[in-house]
Design brief:
The complex is a heterodimer of chains A (430) and B (335). Chain A is an alpha+beta fold and 430 residues long. In chain A, 33% of the residues lie in helices and 32% in strands. In chain A, strands 4, 5, 6, 7, 8, 9 and 10 form a 7-stranded mixed β-sheet that branches. Chain B is α+β, with helices and mostly antiparallel strands and 335 residues long. Chain B contains 5 helices and 16 strands. The chains are: A alpha+beta (430), B alpha+beta (335).
């Protein structure tokens, strides 16, 4: 097949450092283009849907969860390997009944929907065991786009944190998992840890009626992935140190600790599967200062498929030393923008933490600053979420926490805090 | 032949071209900065990342035209990571031409601006008042300064210098008048630089100054703020007039975003010997005064290369903020 996904890497930075300067910042934009839909059509894909069937789901939720699972099943194309798992204190195969994947066709599609319609909510919650089963089901499909949907409504009460960590370590790199929390009885931090480790997203679904549309959208997105298991490979000079590698768009995700060494001076940061999308990364490297006028390649960023060794795109992060302050003090607007978005997320996290500890002065200060920053940076979605927990007087800049903050608003703000906006102004014009 | 890998120090087996351990090409150029890493195809060290000096960081040319030597030196300077200046220097045999500029005839030992012929308003150059020139050598020198705020300025300057020098040499060898040849050369250079642009918003740009020194005349052409000087004792003079507004802002340049390029072209016939100095602003920002330049290199006619080096060194000692390019072309009047 001649049609291939194409990737481009663009580096935005001010390469000029003052004499003795050692910290290099760059925003690396990775974009997947080309006939991705066609490529995705022919890509091997495997999908596992995990439905929490603990007792707490035994309301209208289980009915909505059944409908949502069926919508996802209807969205998967023929030929896709798939399985449905029901989760309680243990993981149970819903479809197929044996611990293996079925292949989607008219017959298996109907059989799977029949099986899902019989789901009953009765039991506890041990998410780690559900994920382990999913990992084992994916095992034969290395190289395929491997994606799971995890739905839960409660926290992981029948498993220790250590057990969940061990399960996550077992699953890491084996599949991408998008996590959905329905209602308000689940822990954002817990699902975020799972999604983050498994390179997926977290979304709160306060009303179970919205599950169906969300599951359909997730399945569609999974079907749009064209290239699996892509990593950002970063080469650095021998004496350099990578301070951090963060995904900054569409959401914030610190990848620094995910590094897997791939050579004497290079490491890989996994990014999962790619469809038609743009992601941006903030890379910070500390280098040994050079002489005035000297240029250094501070980082060589490549997009690779580590399994095949194929290089998809590459770009340079540079450093040049100058004694001209006009050059060295200029901050690249995109670096500034995403530094601001990261600060916004931090302020929200700190504000929510302070609120949980009943330190309302700190909560008001942090969330108030976040509100102003959200407005300044054009992050309207986050500004709206903040307005659910505080009253903000635009004219005076005064901020007051709402007397009663409901749990759904707190969850929505917590979940939404990692979502960033891309620069409003087209950086090419600036 | 066995070689030690410059990156991981593993000793290769005889005949191996790449390191078994890390894949580094064996026998590759070692880094000029850390001395231990291999330099990759992009010019960066695979160990310390430092970009290697290129041939353009410091370049020297010396040619002979009959009994006369001519020279050029171009240097990156101390503050820039790339040399975005470019120079070209060629010598071509010219037939006895139909025209030569009229000597100033004023008795001045050096023909100053009053004696200039041609110019923006005089194209095509007037035939009247010009006398046939003699056969001999013509020396062609071109200096171009890439505009730092444009993309790929070093490509613009090299393309412009190479194109202008080639057209000048070719036209002069065919018997063309130096003024007409200069107009043609600048037009060709402008076209070549404009063609480098992907769009008007991505337009590499540069300045250009050319000098043609033939047995009787000195002809200069320019666009932008690179300069030509006539150095001859007290009669030393600036031959060009910068296309620049207040605050050193360029008002004319070569590039796809420059609109129609109309060069200034001026020609004169010196009455006595002297030296034509062609340079970028990396020199004249520190030494704008013709007399000071002449005094700095009193023996320029005898040893142009030494003079060019001296002037570049002076600019470096003064701070070397910009790229520096200097061509020294003696005019003897007897070639």
């Amino acid at each position: 097949m001649t049609e291939q996904a194409q990737f481009t890497i663009r580096v935005d930075q001010n390469k000029y450092l003052p004499v003795g300067g050692s910290e290099v910042h760059a925003i690396v934009t990775v974009e997947a283009t080309g006939p991705l839909e066609t490529v995705a059509q022919h890509a091997q894909a495997a999908e596992v849907i995990i439905i929490d069937t603990s007792t707490s789901m035994a309301t209208e939720r289980i009915g909505e969860a059944r409908k949502a699972a069926m919508a996802a099943i209807d969205t998967l194309r023929d030929g896709v390997h798939f399985a449905i798992i029901a989760g309680t204190t243990k993981a149970t195969m819903v479809y197929p009944s044996r611990k293996e994947m079925a292949t989607m066709n008219a017959e298996t599609r109907q059989a799977a929907k029949n099986a899902v319609s019989g789901l009953i909510a009765d039991g506890g919650t041990a998410i780690g065991t559900w994920l382990r089963l999913a990992a084992d089901l994916f095992d034969p499909y290395q190289g395929a786009v491997r994606h799971a949907i995890l739905l839960t409504d409660g926290h992981n009460q029948h498993e220790s944190a250590a057990q969940l960590d061990a399960a996550l370590a077992y699953c890491q790199g084996k599949f991408v998992c998008d996590c959905r929390g329905v209602g308000t009885g689940w822990e954002v931090a817990e699902l975020r840890k799972i999604a983050s480790t498994l390179l997926g997203t977290v979304q709160d679904i306060p009303d179970a009626k919205d599950l169906e549309a969300d599951f359909r959208a997730m399945a569609q997105q999974a079907m749009g992935k064209a290239v699996a298991d892509v990593a950002l490979r970063i080469w650095t000079p021998q004496t350099a140190k990578i301070r951090f590698v963060k995904q900054v768009s569409p959401t914030l995700e610190d990848l620094t600790g995910r590094r897997v060494d791939s050579g004497p001076q290079s490491g890989d940061y996994p990014t999962g599967a790619w469809g038609r999308e743009v992601r941006e990364y903030h890379v910070c490297i500390e280098v040994t200062p050079g002489g005035i006028g000297q240029e250094m390649r501070a980082g060589w960023v490549k997009l690779v498929q580590p399994d095949t060794g194929m290089q998809l795109a590459a770009g340079n992060i540079l450093a040049t030393w100058t004694d001209d302050p006009a050059q060295s003090t200029r901050i690249n607007p995109r670096v500034a923008h995403y530094t601001g978005q990261a600060e916004l997320a931090n302020l929200i996290q700190e504000g929510l933490q302070a609120h949980r500890e009943h330190d309302f002065a700190t909560a008001t200060a942090r969330l108030g600053r976040a509100r102003r920053l959200a407005e300044e940076s054009g992050n309207e979605a986050t500004a709206k979420l903040l307005d659910r927990v505080l009253d903000y007087d635009r004219a005076t800049g005064t901020v007051r926490l709402k007397p009663h903050i409901d749990r759904a608003s707190e969850i929505a703000l917590d979940v939404g805090s990692v979502r960033t906006v891309r620069t409003r102004r087209d950086p090419d014009q600036g | 032949m066995a070689a030690i890998c410059p990156v991981c120090s593993l000793e290769g087996l005889p005949g191996e071209r790449f390191c078994e351990e890390c894949g580094t090409p064996l026998g590759a150029t070692l880094c000029a900065s850390c001395g231990a890493g291999a330099v990759d195809a992009d010019g960066y060290c695979g160990r310390c990342g430092v970009r290697q000096p290129t041939g353009r960081d410091h370049a020297e040319i010396e040619l002979t035209a009959g009994a006369v030597r001519v020279a050029g030196v171009s240097d990156r300077g101390l503050r820039h990571s790339h040399n975005e200046d470019a120079m070209a220097l060629t010598v071509t045999a010219v037939p006895a031409g139909p025209y030569a500029a009229v000597p100033a005839g004023t008795g001045d030992p050096v023909a100053g601006p009053a004696a200039w012929q041609g110019g923006r308003d005089a194209f095509p150059p007037p035939a009247a008042g010009r006398t046939p020139g003699g056969a001999g050598h013509a020396i062609v020198g071109v200096v171009c300064d890439g505009v730092s705020t444009s993309p790929r300025p070093e490509e613009a300057s090299q393309t412009a210098a190479d194109t202008a020098a080639a057209v000048l040499a070719e036209r002069l060898a065919a018997g063309a008048d130096a003024v007409a040849a200069t107009y043609q050369a600048v037009a060709a250079a402008a076209g070549a630089v404009a063609a480098l642009a992907d769009s008007p918003f991505d337009a590499p740009a540069c300045t250009l100054v050319s000098a043609v020194v033939d047995p009787r005349h000195v002809t200069v052409g320019w666009v932008g703020d690179s300069r030509a000087y006539w150095l001859s004792g007290p009669g030393s003079a600036l031959l060009t007039q910068d296309d620049a507004g207040p605050g050193h802002v360029l008002t004319a340049w070569l590039g796809a975003d420059a609109g129609e390029v109309v060069p200034h072209v001026r020609s004169f016939a010196p009455e006595g010997p002297g030296v034509v100095l062609v340079c970028s602003d990396g020199l004249w920002n520190y030494y704008p005064d013709p007399l000071a330049l002449a005094q700095a290199v009193p023996d320029a006619a005898a040893d142009p290369l030494a003079a060019a080096r001296t002037l570049v060194d002076l600019a470096l000692q003064a701070g070397g903020r910009d790229n520096i390019t200097v061509l020294v072309i003696p005019f003897t009047g007897r070639r």
